[in-house]
């Protein structure tokens, strides 16, 4: 058991500055009162019982991958970011422990657990829901997080900590306008309901092509979005 102590040096500004130094493009913080609707077994305190704050950081995903005629570059970026962000999370948690504060990574891209209540696979905490609770953006009709800065072209990682940190305000910008382009364009018809048909999406979007290696085969719901690249600059709007 790690011995912890109260450290007045650990505040929201310190957390964000440290993660930015480690390479994060965005960072937000959520308090426990924002997770009352979390599924049973997947609340932050179901993972870390002493959790007081949820830290979410993001890396920008290369938008050039959407312009390619193959999904191999997209898959490469996804794999590299997932590995890099897990290492960033571990490095950050190590810094926190050295200061006497417990903090734990939850996995940038899993591994996931099976929720027997809903029949869905879930990360131990939901990255996109944590990010929305931390004020980084809003979840769009395509079920992806949309940020003002980078649209849905971000990769997310969540850290749980016992440090009580000031929470960021929720994002109030109406980024998603419910245009339903993603619903109409989905080749697997996985977005017909408000909750994505997880298995329909996964069976279509992930796997090998011919005799090739595993890859992400589809990201239509991501690049069809009019605000795919964010809302901060007019030229990013499609």
Secondary-structure topology with pairs:
Layout: H1 12-22, E1 26-31, H2 44-47, E2 53-60, H3 72-98, E3 103-105, E4 112-115, E5 120-123, H4 127-133, E6 138-139, E7 145-146, E8 154-161, H5 181-185, H6 198-205, E9 206-208, E10 214-216, H7 220-223
Question: What does this molecule look like?
Answer:
This protein has 7 helices and 10 strands. The relative contact order is 0.17. It has a 4-stranded antiparallel sheet, with helices on both faces. A two-stranded antiparallel ribbon has the order 4-5. Strands 6-7 form a two-stranded antiparallel sheet. With 238 residues, the chain is of the alpha+beta class. Mean pLDDT is 90; it is low at 1-6 and 234-238. The longest helix is centred in the middle third of the chain and has 27 residues, at 72-98. It is globular and about 50 Å long. A hairpin with a 4-residue loop joins β4 (112-115) and β5. It has helices spanning 12-22, 44-47, 72-98, 127-133, 181-185, 198-205, 220-223, and strands at residues 26-31, 53-60, 103-105, 112-115, 120-123, 138-139, 145-146, 154-161, 206-208, 214-216.
């Amino acid at each position: 058991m790690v011995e912890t102590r109260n450290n007045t040096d650990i505040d929201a500004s310190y957390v964000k500055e440290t993660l930015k130094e480690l390479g994060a493009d965005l960072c937000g913080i959520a308090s426990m009162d924002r997770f009352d609707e979390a599924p049973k077994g997947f609340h932050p305190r179901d993972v870390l019982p002493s959790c007081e704050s949820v830290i979410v950081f993001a890396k920008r995903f290369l938008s050039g991958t959407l312009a390619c005629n193959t999904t191999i570059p997209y898959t490469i970026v996804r794999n590299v970011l997932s590995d890099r962000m897990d290492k960033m999370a571990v490095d950050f948690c190590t810094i926190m422990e050295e200061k006497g504060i417990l903090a734990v990574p939850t996995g940038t891209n899993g591994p996931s657990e099976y929720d027997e209540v809903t029949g869905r696979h879930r990360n131990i905490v939901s990255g996109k829901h944590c990010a929305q609770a931390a004020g980084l953006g809003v979840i769009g009709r395509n079920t992806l997080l949309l940020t003002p800065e980078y649209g849905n072209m971000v990769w997310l990682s969540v850290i749980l900590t016992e440090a009580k940190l000031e929470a960021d305000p929720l994002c109030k910008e109406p980024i998603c306008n419910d245009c339903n382009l993603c619903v109409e364009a989905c080749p697997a018809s996985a977005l017909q309901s408000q909750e994505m048909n997880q298995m329909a999406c996964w069976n279509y979007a992930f796997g090998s092509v011919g005799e090739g290696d595993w890859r992400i085969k589809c990201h239509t719901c991501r690049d069809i979005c009019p605000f795919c690249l964010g809302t901060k600059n007019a030229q990013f709007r499609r």
